[in-house]
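queue> pop job 88
queue> type: inverse folding (structure -> sequence)
queue> payload:
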């Protein structure tokens, strides 16, 4: 049986995710923005929380950990490089490590850039990747700590995953991200179709995440910075891929 994925809206525009294995009863939470909706989702399904995986140290991804630990016996896993800024960890992780989630393994990927020490979790068997504020729906996280070159390198790791991978990102920023994407590549038909689809979803108050990596590769300007026609459109025909990415990220910061 495949793992069951539950997307939980939290705070104003955050998402947390539950992964549940019915055979073992094992449940994992990825990121902890707000305790009440997470505990409600667990209670509604009669699930116990076994472990919490943290992607990075920002408060809107970790602040519910104390309340969740008060209500459960979950273990807490996060990046060794970020351990000094995370809640106390049961296990510290680095790129190349893996974590058991029911019968599957989640592989740890260093995706530093938004922060240094940000990690993602890839489950190849279920075709899922939990990317939080690195690769986002239609965009990528602002570079609070890392350089453009570092973020570009991180995004290339995620871009190399199979196209059917569902990218489970951390925020409902898709509408604004796609509006910016259209300023870079206005004549992209896949982008225009995605904008219309996202508008319908939001009108019905439905999340726009997760999204397939194949859709991101076709519409997300931060993954498309390497393409010659994108470089030409931003006036950087001879730029390296990382330089083109840096220009697009700088434009988004001012959008």
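queue> result:
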């Amino acid at each position: 049986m495949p793992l069951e994925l539950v997307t939980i809206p939290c705070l104003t525009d955050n998402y947390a995710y539950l992964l549940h294995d019915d055979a073992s009863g094992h449940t994992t939470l990825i990121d902890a923005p707000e305790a009440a909706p997470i505990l409600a989702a667990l209670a509604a399904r009669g699930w116990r929380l076994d472990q919490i995986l943290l992607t990075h140290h920002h408060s809107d991804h970790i602040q519910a950990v104390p309340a969740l630990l008060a209500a459960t016996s979950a273990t807490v896993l996060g990046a060794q490089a970020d351990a000094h800024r995370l809640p106390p960890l049961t296990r510290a992780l680095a790129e190349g490590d893996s974590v058991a989630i029911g019968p599957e393994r989640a592989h740890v990927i260093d995706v530093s850039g938004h922060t240094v020490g940000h990690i993602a979790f890839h489950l190849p068997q279920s075709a899922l990747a939990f990317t939080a504020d690195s690769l986002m729906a239609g965009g990528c996280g602002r570079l609070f700590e890392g350089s453009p070159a570092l973020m570009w390198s991180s995004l290339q790791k995620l871009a190399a995953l199979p196209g059917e991978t569902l990218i489970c990102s951390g925020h409902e920023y898709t509408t604004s991200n796609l509006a910016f994407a259209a300023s870079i590549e206005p004549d992209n038909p896949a982008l225009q179709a995605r904008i219309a689809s996202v508008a319908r979803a939001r009108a019905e108050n439905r999340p726009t995440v997760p999204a397939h990596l194949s859709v991101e590769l076709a519409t997300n300007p931060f993954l498309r910075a390497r393409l010659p026609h994108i470089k030409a459109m931003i006036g950087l025909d001879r730029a390296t891929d990382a330089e083109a990415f840096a220009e697009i990220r700088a434009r988004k910061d001012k959008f």
